[in-house]
Amino acid sequence: MGRAQGALQKRVLGLYHYLADVLPYMILSWDERYLRFVGANRFLKKLSPAMVIATYFGDGYLWGLVGLFILIWGTPLDRKYVMIAFAITMINIALFRFLKFVFKRTRPLYTAPPYDLGYRLLDTYSFPSGHATTSFGIAYALAHFYPDLHIQIAAYSAASIIAISRIHMAEHYPSDVISGALLGILSSAFLLPIFERIFKL
């Protein structure tokens, strides 16, 4: 019995060591390697002005314009879609802000981007990426409501460009962006059926 308990305790401590020390180190090493790769990529360097614009539009301007367009020229059903997407986005904002407060992961050490963005970062925390969370959450909702291949490609392409811009601008590690994208998609997938019942769709 004593040996079994000792072996179990050893396994638990080994798992704790892996989760608390080894895994975070591996993730950080991967993050730093690919952050440097994205920052040094010649193709993306040529697109630096576009990356700056993408990060600006990711603040909500792009999706706000899309929503406004649908509200003005869409049908009553389309307007319900906008309200649902807006509600999901508000929940996603609350989710990623809560997670940032919990994890308190600082942004990359060389965060001061080589661009004059003209604004201060809303917070100093990096995980998960708010831009990726909201963009992929909205992209999922658009793809769900408008199951047209062209719309789906456009929505996810826009979300991906915004997410990549956050890494290129050195405001997020790659894992921040990947986690944010997954968070946005999963939360939208969970919330959409609920809101569809509320709005009787």
Helix/strand-derived category reads mainly alpha
Helix segment tally: 7
Extract low-pLDDT stretches. Answer: 110-120
Round the Cα radius of gyration to an integer and report it: 20 Å
Number of domains: 2
Strand content: under 5%
Span of the ends, CA to CA: 59 Å
Helix content: over 70%
Q: Could you tell me the mean pLDDT?
A: 82
The topology string of helices and strands comes to HHHHHHH
Q: How many E strands? A: 0
The biggest sheet amounts to: none
Q: Outline, from the CA principal axes?
A: globular
Q: Could you give a quick summary of the protein structure above?
A:
The model is unreliable at 110-120 (pLDDT under 50). Helix content is 79%, strand content 0%.
Question: Secondary-structure blueprint of this entry?
Answer:
Elements: H1 2-40, H2 42-46, H3 48-73, H4 76-103, H5 130-145, H6 149-168, H7 174-198
Helix pairs in contact: 3-5, 3-6, 4-5, 4-7, 5-6, 5-7, 6-7
Question: How would you portray this structure in words?
Answer:
With 201 residues, this protein is mainly alpha-helical. It has 2 domains: 1-40; 42-108 and 115-198, no CATH class. It is built from 7 helices and no strands. Helix 5 packs antiparallel against helix 6. The radius of gyration is 20 Å and the shape is globular. It starts with a helix and ends with a helix.
